[in-house]
Amino acid sequence: MAELPDLSSAVARTVQALRAERGWSLDQLAARSGVSKGVLVALEQRRSNPNLATLVRIGDAFGVPVTRLVEVGPDPPVQLTEGRVLWHGRNGGTGTILAATDPPWAAELWRWELRPGESSGGDAHAPGTRELIWVEQGTLTLTVAGERHQVMPGQCARFPGGEPHSYANHGQAAVLLTMVVVIPPARPLRTTVRAPTPRRLWPTPGRLPYPGRGPV
Asked: Is there a domain that residue 206 lies in?
């Protein structure tokens, strides 16, 4: 059985393919994703492993789920996948992406464990992103646009992922939650339309105002 490519190789190959598919330059991808050109160059040259925040920004720019960036292989009608841990908390927590549907409007399925004292997030995703979480264990502190919410075991919360948001565990027990993130299609490229050159309404000094006619 052939070995699956490591994370850096998978991301490099997929980002290059998606850029070529859309005809984007590195500068255009940097502008759309908020990831610096230097970081993108390092990713495509397999010189660094991206963190979760970088993967999310790149995925949002392309309008594809994170799984599209980290998995390289055939695309059969029925896909059997295993989770990949893309976030590690300082106290042992994990953020695992389990699977995702195809774009447009791709949906990512995540499994998170936040240990006491851990938090994740803070940034806004692409406008139009939607998130849905279900807390299985513990009490989750969800902050959306600066407003805190306590999500108890058995409760669900849905909110616009395009707002700044974060997850935190301020309790004494681990928080287990399932998350679904719905990603909007990539925004169309903005093009600069140059204003047409105004037509000259009066003749240039020294030239005839109309062909074949002299001054009146």
From this structure: no
